[in-house]
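User: ok so my PI wants both of these folded by tonight, can you help

Assistant: No problem, let's get them done. Here's the first:
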Amino acid sequence: MGQGRWRSLVSGVWRSIAVWAASTVTMLVLAAVLPDFRLESAGGDSTTRIAVTAAAGAGVFGLLSSLVWPLLVRLLLLVPALVLGLLVFFLNGSLLLIALRVNPSGRGEAAPETAVVVAAVMSAVASATGAALAVRDDDAYRRRLYRLADRRRRRGDGQAGPATPGAVFVQLDGVGHDVLRAAVDKGLMPTVASWLAPRDGRGPTHRLTSWRTDWSSQTGASQLGILHGSNHDVPAFRWYEKDSREVMVCNRPTSAAELQRRAIERTGDGGLLTVDGASRGNLFSGGADQLALVLSVSARRGKENRSRAGYFAYFSDPANAVRTAMSFVAEVGRETVQSTRARLTQQRPRVGRGGLYPFVRAFATVVERDVVVAAVIGDMLAGRNAVYADLVAYDEVAHHSGPHSRDAEKVLAKLDRSLALLAQVAEHAPRPYRIVVLSDHGQSPGETFQARYGLSLGNLVRAGCGLPVPRRAERTHSGAEARAAVRAALRRPVEENGEQHRAARRRSEPVVLASGNLGLVSFPDVPHRMSKEEIDRRHPALLSTLADHPGIGFVLVRSEEHGGVVLGAHGAEIPVGRLGDGTGPLAGFGPGAAHAVRRTHSFPHTADIMINSWYDPADGEVLAFEEQIGSHGGLGGAQGRPFLLSPVVLSAPADDDTELVGAEQLHHVFRRWLSECVGPQVPLPEGEDEDEDERAA
């Protein structure tokens, strides 16, 4: 055995002894302060005997945690993920009770509820002690990261990993280009700042680029285009399809699976991740074989659904499971305090944040983040070729607190720490890695349409059709991706009482759907896409009611005369073929608006009436048709301007005078980068040939 291996063995033994000692002291302290937890017999014992009892109990508890816990979690993978998270405390407490029972001294005992508390504190202390001792030990750090990794991955044969780099794409859901830039300037994201800042006389390691989404500025359209190369016929986050008489919703597992199937059929390609790839926390698989928390496969049953197995990578370590559970509880409390403060200070704009929302937020910002990051760590340590992961935390919080709120900024700081961890892992991976960070869309601030005008879009449409309007309007469903992840984890269908059932009951009434500040109106009893002329004959006041409303920017309808027309206030009517970005109803919506509208107009399942809300270019505000004060889904403002942060060792995503437009173009850029990683690397300018290890991040 070499000197290095002896040193590693001795270091590991001393670290185990230190963790054992810390656990023993923790058990002694808890026995002193908790009335239902004792380590002595009824008649009393000496201090030495009590210490021996604590040491034996801590040792047995540590062994059970190391040996039994992974088996328990593997068996409990059949349990819904959120239920597993809630069982963490109970299972850990049960292990402590067993440890006290088999304790050789036979003197320890605790009430069940006290055992839960003692086990949680001991696991947290043991985890913190071990991590602190391993800070300067690279081998220990690597082993700790492996424990976070998916235990089902194939073990290497001991040979060196590939010399060619792999690629990790990390999607920060909903973070706009300007939001990221502001967070860096405020010091909220030091990791990103370090990548963008020159160092040691050299240039920055990464470049920051903005890109422009399609009209449907939401995760479904963007991620489908990025991962599968086509988002054709995805007009919004949710839309009604007349041929199947169903509402498609991007965050419904069955819809996601169908959209993925259509994209593969259109492109003839499995996706970006087909070659030794991994998809983590996404709506779509990208063709990857390694899956965790992927919505398009979550509705499957049987061996072909490996998505939920990703929970094992994190919950198999009891210390990490307890820490995540405690963080979950803390996040629920944090949201409760923040929402109460917003209500007491009468913050405007504001939406309701009660009910299950605090738990949905905690799932997105804690559980989903921890599980996805752990899965990516496992992928990097396994040396996989390409990984794509989505972190939805910011998007969920910004919907309800606002994209520029303090709540959202705190989430950005935590996401930056996740990026820092991945950069550290890259130093221990068996191959170099290029870390690309991007967003799928931004978010535009603004109050809701209903809050400003006292009428929902659905009721405005009903009024224009001459139908009765309820006195109390219904709230629309939130489009947050985290809500779908929660329901999938609980094995509940997404929007199970949703719009398709209402459409089936009232075939003669319009189906009105909302995707952020994009509204869609379909008439289910007409089998084809209705024209302006048909709508005017059926409901003479509807289109003028919509186009002239101050909360609506423009309306798109098919036209028998012009093919398609965009309608605006005061009778403005411009054929789609003559649309311009700076004139007519699209004036102020920015460059590319006309192209985006024309492209969506060509989709087979575009709604009878497409409605984009009012937009204020001065403040960047829109009016959401959903209960959101940070929204995305249509045209207007930061929602259509996400970012792309890429290593400079890779080729530039686009020429200096060319703008990246559409998610499909990003797919081609990422394909090019993957081929660069496998093939000859792009030569760097003179003076930029810094060490590959520095470039790995």
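One down. Here's the second:
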Amino acid sequence: MNFQEQIQQGIPTELPQPKPYETNINHAPKRKEILTEEEKILALKNALRYFEPQFHAELLPEFKEELEKYGRIYMYRFRPDYEMKARDIAEYPGKSEQAKAIMLMIQNNLDYAVAQHPHELITYGGNGAVFSNWAQYLLTMKYLSEMTDEQTLTMYSGHPMGLFPSHKDAPRVVVTNGMVIPNYSKSDDWEKFNALGVSQYGQMTAGSYMYIGPQGIVHGTTITVLNAFRKINKEPIGGLFVTSGLGGMSGAQPKAGNIAGCVTVCAEVNPKITKIRHEQKWVNEIHENLDELVARVRKAQKNNEAVSLAYLGNIVEVWEKFDEENLKIDIGSDQTSLHNPWAGGYYPAGQTFEESNTMMAENPELFKEKVQETLIRHAAAINKHTLRQDQGPGTYFFDYGNAFLLEASRAGADVMSDHPTLGREFKFPSYVQDIMGPMCFDYGFGPFRWVCASGKPEDLQKTDEIACQVLEEMIKTSPEEIQQQMKDNITWIKGAQENNLVVGSQARILYADAEGRVKIAEAFNKAIKNGEIGAVVLGRDHHDVSGTDSPYRETSNIYDGSRFTADMAIQNVIGDSFRGATWVSIHNGGGVGWGEVINGGFGMLLDGSDDADRRLKSMLFWDVNNGISRRSWARNEGSVFAIKRAMEAEPNLKVTLPNFVDESLF
């Protein structure tokens, strides 16, 4: 069968031959054994229900072995034989162009160059899944190849529940991931429900088919690094940025450091992913010896190099060694997957990578103990650097939204503030509190992104040019309050091609406000209509102005007590659904951990039609201003400014504004 026929077949009518376990692929670690004997039988029954009864006797022992060996039933036998990658939208079978766009994006999320654990259908973060097993993938792609523009596919945590009669203005796909009852949202609950095959961790853009490789976070990380240096009144040139993690998301850090112009040291314990990032040129050099690393950093600083150095080892060793060597760290953070600390998100010091993986599966309690000991050491080493005054102010350390401070506090590390206030419980700020929130999100600037559905690099270059033209025109009349954001974005888009940011699909990310997103999308749609470029898929990171309610990250600069509520994210996805999104998603757990956040996203196909023009204006305006209005009601001054400006531009927008109280009254 050709590619189209394989998609249309779905789950094969005859069993394919078992596939060998490919050791050259970066695989997910074995999950801890958490099911009772009765629950294991239930997990097997749940897996077998995807297949005709005549296959059950053959598949049962195979699925049982997977469950015992890996802690999950992935159904490796059913992995497709075709190459997993985003193709030209014209290559996909189907009756709906919108459905074809979704197929393209699903395959991009599972591209070997993009996905962290492609054979386990995990895109990034150690457990951020597109699907739980390969039967779900096959069935979903089949449904998408059959659907019309008057049907909607309903996705329950990776499982395609089915195609339902709908209408052309409804989303073609509605995705929910991890929507468990709140009282069952602890990490072990996820382990159990996922092993049973009834729920999954969709992360943010993993389970919503909108991940575009590490580029997706490079821009945000670049802005963060630039503004972190601005906060300490230092130029990035010759400055030192120390962090850790080279996985799907965190792999963006060294690239962002290079673009910002500083020296970046990023530690990683996994040799495979370190090698991949080096081959992709996301990191310049790999070092395994700490003395050599120190010498290389000093040389880079002396020569004002913009260079990224990966240390293959534990980040704690770097912080401690740099303290011993009197090597000043200007800015520091951490982007290991601490939302997932007991299942491969963070590794203990003093153990090899292989030893840690074995301990994780066979002795999870000891593994947890070792991780918490390391977190205490990690925090202690950071504290030493932040308190140093011998070479000017100490290190500016910020939590990069990966739950580092949260998990360190739970381990008993010294990270709590001596004088805590509401929203400022920790010694160190979240990067959203100090940087992204007040400088970007409050004004409506967030990670808008697009994918060229043709797969042609020349289309991407053309969209870059269009976006740049729009921004350069807008900045002429932009108010002073957002001039810096506009300048940073123009600089970014002008350098996007030379920075070689594409991994997987021909995609781009750009921080833009509602006005910018609408104008750029309008210009794209017009260019498609005129035949200058092919179709474009619009989206954004969930990590945005409106998409995510996360008290220690996206909404950490909300100080009216509402940061633990999730009304904004839920309203966002509902509003996007009836304003024209092609697909929408809502997840529990993205970025900072199961039970710690609710986040939503969307995708929208631009095909050059008047209908697409109508949809984009309605949906993009809401998608941003929903969050600005919530931030405004929390008395964030930047958002009050932004929402007043939005109301002036759109007479039908009427938002409740807060009255500010004179502090002296108290």
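DSSP finds 21 helices and 19 strands in the chain. The two ends are 75 Å apart (CA to CA). Good luck tonight!
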